[in-house]
Amino acid sequence: AGKEKSEDKKVLQVGTEATFAPFEFMDKGKVSGFDVDLLNATAEEAGYEVNIENTGWDAMFAGLQSKQLDIGMAGVTINDERKKSYDFSVPYFESTSMIAFKEGTKIKGAEDLKGKKVGVQNGTTGQFAAEAVVGKNSSSISKYETAALMFQALQSGDVETAVTDIAVALEYVKNNPDSGIKTVGDDKQFKPEYYGIVFPKGSKYKEDFDKALNELYDNGKYTEIYKKWFGK
Ligand code: GLN
Fold first, then answer.
1. Which of 29, 43, 187, 231 could disulfide-pair with 50, CB 3.0 to 4.6 Å?
2. DSSP labels for 55-94?
3. Does residue 61 lie in a domain region?
4. Which atom of ligand 1 is nearest to the CA of 128?
5. ipTM strictly over 0.90?
6. Which helix (H) or strand (E) segment is 52 a member of?
7. Does the beta carbon of 78 sit less than 6 angstroms from any atom of ligand 1?
């Protein structure tokens, strides 16, 4: 008994896909971003330490399945399919899909994805949103391992459009003003979605993290982190 020393805290292993600014990206060799700040604050509130590794998207899910990872934190949208295999925290961010396109491409809305080459990050809700318009397994969709590779393909002209999460598309355009990449203005083309922290099915940590997240909503800490990254 007595005061808890930091070395007594359990270190939880976290996987992410760090080409997803502003949620997670590499900055001077370290994973940083909104998700990183939020996860650190949540873990601290819950009494844990976290070790965040840029595993990549597929390896993150594989690591959760095999329980080599305790947590996945990568702007992961909570959906019914994923809930069959993983547990999610309470939602922590509202998002939706957005279309980015190379200047000169004629596109005003989701329906215009038809007949265009579309880039997506493999296994993401951007892929599912694009497939809902142009058809599952459509040969017009190219799937990339990371969001960075998807944007590269858009920039080089390998694809004419890309479908990804709204904040990530806007951040890319902001950080690459000379790229000739634009976003389709109306953000209401696709359904709202909600991010959650991912745990292996039956994880004993979910409850502690839910409690801690709710505490951060109540005590203003969530708002503080939100403002740091999104400014309003
Ligand atoms: N939110 C999207 C999803 O869960 C994309 C996440 C990501 O690319 N990191 O599929």
1. 43
2. --HHHHHHHHHTTS-SEE-SSPBP-HHHHTTEEE-S--EE
3. yes
4. 10
5. yes
6. strand 49-53
7. no
> What's the confidence (pLDDT) of residue 231?
92
> Is the shortest distance between the CB of 21 and ligand 1 below 6 Å?
no
Q: pLDDT tens for residues 91-150? A: 999 999 999 999 999 999 999 999 999 999 999 999 999 999 999 989 999 999 999 999
pLDDT at 185: 81
Ligand 1 atom with the smallest distance to the CA of 79 is 4
CB-count burial class (<10 Å; 0-12, 13-18, 19+) for 100: buried
Local confidence band at 8 (pLDDT 50, 70, 90 cut-offs): confident
C-alpha distances in angstroms, 22 versus 36, 50, 193?
10, 19, 17
CATH code assigned at 59 = 3.40.190.10
CA distance 225 to 12: 21
Is the CB of 75 inside a 6 Å radius of any atom of ligand 1? yes
Q: What is the pTM of this model?
A: 0.95
The stretches of the chain forming alpha helices (DSSP H) are 34-46, 57-65, 80-83, 125-134, 147-156, 166-175, 206-219, 221-230
Whether residue 100 is contained in a domain is answered as yes
Q: What are phi and psi of 224, to 5 degrees?
A: -60, -45
The token duo for 175 is 């950080």
Whether 1 is covered by a domain: the verdict is no
Residue 76 lies inside a defined structural domain of this protein? yes
Q: Of 151, 160, 180, whose CA–CA distance to 113 is shortest? A: 160
Q: Is 118 in the pocket of ligand 1 (CB under 6 A)?
A: no
Residue 169: give the domain boundaries. 96-192
